[in-house]
Amino acid sequence: MEIPMNSKSLWHENDKRHSFPILQDHISTDVTIIGAGTTGITSAYLLAKQGIKVTLIEAGKILDGTTGYTTAKVTSQHGPIYQDLLHDFGKNNAKLYYEANEEALTFIRKTVKEQNIECDLSSENALLYTTNEKNITKLIDEEKAYKTLGIDGGIVNLGSDLPFRVVKALMMRDQLQFNPVKFFAGLIPTILKNGGRIFEHTRASHVKDKNIPSVKTTAGHTIKSNYVLVSSHFPFNDQDGLYFSRLHVERSYCLAVKTRKNPPRDMYLSIDHPSRSLRYAKSETGESLLLVGGEGHKSGKNYGKTTEHYERLKQYTEENFGVEAIPFRWSAQDLKTLDNIPYIGPISSGKDNVLVATGYGKWGMSNGVAAAMILSDRLMGKKNRYSDLFDPRRSEKKKTNAATFLKENMDVGKEFIGGKLHRPNKDVDQLSIDEGAIVHYNGNKVGAYKDSKGELHLVETTCPHMGCDTSWNDAERSWDCPCHGSRFSYTGEILEGPAVKPLKQAKKDK
Question: Is CB count within 10 Å lower at the N or C end of the chain?
Fold first, then answer.
């Protein structure tokens, strides 16, 4: 079966999202929220319910970012992390991390009932597994961490749940999965009912953080408010707090597959390499699908064809489950912090009225909701027991964090220099239909894509964020920055930040 030509998420199959206007005036509000995904919408919902005047702005369409392109596992099982959290942060903080995410799950369960949201929510177990004898010890150590922290789970015998041999599996009980677009869109009516305002296609360009901070948009309009909450995935104002040097950006891939064998009921994540993520889902017509995810790599480091990642997922699925059809395929970007705990709180020291939430490490469904709860409490003057753990201003001076910081920034330096030294090996007239590449054009190095009609689209490949050179992503037909993850369409428009300006157009022959 063929992989779809174009990327489309299962969660956008029957798209009934609200549409909202573009901001076209200067306005004021109590709280400005930048980014209408998991954290932005949940924060607006929580604050609006308390009578706080919120304005939520989104650079594109609501729920069109990572939230709409996830596997939508809602779980506190974030890989084999609790043994590391115990070692690095101690028992109390490791337990706080777990409990913050469990509270996010409780919020989702409660809200689905209160708001009568139809989002295919189901309670499932989450399992880590290995097919490699060498990785057994890691799962045994993780089970010990579960017992230390009082986590409901343990080593289990999978039997015939999966169609291949599993040598060890670790379960966390009573977790969730859902349709994220349906759930978060279900919060919108309450935001509007309580006076919240939402603007789409309204991109923030910078924040002035005086006593009354103001957000300026790329169209030149200003929003003044008492607080600003930046939930734009990668903070666009990343100079504050030096987030460009503290976040690692990865891209991973997913197929929604109609399989010959029945999909497993629970949610699975392999700790082997390459890792594989599995969960079942239903299409809008009720058809059972298996979501197969994996193939993560540093964003923008597109060695060879990125379509090969989808091909490898297809091959894995065919070998283990059989493939009848692949109706959907998509990819997403995820951010990891230096110490693997998200940054949630004031963006930097001395700027308590500008807040940030980022670095969910591929687990934004739970971490993102937890962030909204933490930040909403802060804005309402309530003490939240998780604030200190996630505070972006925390010390990250441990040797492992310093090493991660050094490696990440050395990689950025290499990409910056390597991009500038890269020489095209193709002339523009050698491009085939639906092919993109860095090419020679009139003696210059430019990014070129030839569309299905044979029309040529030329851009300068320098990322406007911090000057690294972008690379071609053939699977998504985009130009991706290997330094900080900004992405651009083949016409140069921004797909993902932190960049706030598009790629420059290269001059064409008349």
Answer: C
Q: Tokens for 145, please give them.
A: 């961490």
Closest CA to 105 of 361, 368, 290, 293: 368
DSSP string, 457-504: EEE--B-TTTSPBPEEETTTTEEE-TTT--EEETTS-EEESS--SPPP
User: CA-to-CA distance for 440 and 446, rounded, in angstroms?
Assistant: 7
- Which domains does the chain possess? 10-70+182-246+340-396 (3.50.50.60), 122-176+248-337 (3.30.9.10), 397-510 (2.102.10.10)
| Count of beta carbons in the 10 Å neighbourhood of residue 183 | 28
DSSP 10: G
Bridge partners of 441? 444
**Residues 69 and 257: beta-carbon distance below 8 Å:** no
**Three-state DSSP state, 447:** strand
Give the sign of the dihedral formed by CA 193, CA 214, CA 38, CA 153: negative
Task: Specify the residue for token string 């962030």.
Answer: 371
- Per-residue pLDDT reduced to its tens digit, 409-451: 445 444 444 544 455 667 787 888 998 888 888 878 899 999 9
**pTM, whole model, 2 decimals?**
0.93
Distance CA 349, CA 196 (A): 29
pLDDT, tens only, 445-460: 899 999 989 999 999 9
How far is Cα 221 from Cα 202, in angstroms, rounded to an integer? 9
Specify burial of residue 246 (Cβ count, 10 A radius: 0-12, 13-18, 19+).
buried
Query: Which residue in this structure is represented by tokens 């790599």?
Result: 297
Residue 101, CA distances (Å) to 76, 178, 496 in order? 5, 16, 26
Q: Alpha carbon 250 to chain centroid distance?
A: 9
CA distance 438 to 490: 12
Alpha-helical (H) ranges within 300-339 are 307-320
* Strand-pair category, 54-57 with 31-34: parallel
* Beta-strand runs (E) in 157-309: 168-177, 197-199, 204-208, 214-217, 222-224, 227-230, 247-259, 267-270, 276-282, 288-298
The one-letter amino acid at 356: V
